Amino acid sequence: MNIKSLLLGSAAALIAVSGARAADAVVVAEPEPAEYVKICDVYGSGYFYIPGTETCLRIGGYVRYDIGAGDVGSFDGARAFNQFGDPKEQDTWYKNTRFTLKTWTGQETELGTLKTYTETRINFGNSNGYGDDFGNDAVNKGITLNFAWIQLGGLRVGKDESAFDTFIGYAGSVINDTIVPYGGFDTNVVQYYFDAGNGFSAVLSLEEGSGDAGAAVLDGAGNYVFNATSGNDTIDSYVPHVVGGVKYTQGWGDIIAVGAYDSTWEEWAGKVRLDVNATNELSLFIMAGYGTDDHIDRNFYKPWGGNWAVWGGGTYKFNEKTSFNLQASADDDKNYGVAANIAYDIVPGLTVTAEVDYDHDGKFGDADNRNWTNADKKNSVGGILRFQRSF
């Protein structure tokens, strides 16, 4: 009995030792530490390092919903037809939903800061007779590439909006700021920015322009005809459009001047602007433009009527959430526009804007100068209610 117990105990001990050694042979790898996203505060808030690189990335954008009514805010009846093929006013809502995605990158190099910016927009809504659609279908309007540029130091190349607008600034903080238009926008560019560091800065931009060979407009009899004065705003040779500008900025505001040469039509245009921070709550601006019309009435840099145009207005902040914005404009052809809105931040990131617009067509009935935004009326009133969630 003792011998049997001893043998059984020895066998059990051997099995236990063998099992322990077998268990020791299985080595479980330690989990590698996760590479968490690191905040990059060099270029402002919202940036983070792309894992494994020295590039800082920011992703943003907005979702927007517009409801327009009337003639100006809804572009009512601009190119609409009834069931018999005759021009008519649609007299319905203008609605549009937009999703915009933006990206920014930044990285320090031995040649300066390397930056990129992109902005892509996707729209769904009804045309209300505006644009290429002659009806009022609610459809997907496609995807547009609004910005996609690379900048190293002061050199920028890619898809941008013209420096004739971006350098001097847009015409106020209203939705319909182009009742009297102030310049062409979409273009490929080769630009150089210079910052002296003492408030002075400058830009030189070589641009391609954009647009087709012309557009159809209503003649006095209500027929659509080709409008040669709309012109082709895209260069058709190796000679680019040229834009140059200078700016002086201080705490009180800034003074800016830009000049442009349209190489397609051999026309010149220029704008000057004054911005004043009157108080902590009130900011004001006035901008004036002048352009030649020796070969064509309107071109990429002078889309306004006649030789001169002027825009002015400002913003008053009632509090951190509420602001009032106003813009008035006029040109040499006696076109006038007024736009005013109230913008209210319901919560951080969500803004509701209610705007009312007025447009006077100085050359009503002239097919070559018909203002598309007010259809067949000399005086037009409309408005837009906008909801925008920015992130």
UniProtKB/TrEMBL annotation:
SUPFAM superfamilies: Porins. One of its GO terms (cellular component) is cell outer membrane. Keywords: Cell outer membrane, Ion transport, Membrane, Porin, Signal, Transmembrane, Transmembrane beta strand, Transport. It is found in: Cell outer membrane. The keyword Transmembrane applies. Residues 1-22 form the signal peptide. It holds the Pfam family Porin_2. It comes from the Bacteria. GO terms for biological process: monoatomic ion transport. It is a multi-pass membrane protein. Transmembrane segments: none annotated. One of its GO terms (molecular function) is porin activity. Belongs to the alphaproteobacteria porin family. Forms passive diffusion pores that allow small molecular weight hydrophilic materials across the outer membrane. Consists of 16-stranded beta-barrel sheets, with large surface-exposed loops, that form a transmembrane pore at the center of each barrel. The pore is partially ocluded by a peptide loop that folds into the pore lumen. This is Porin.
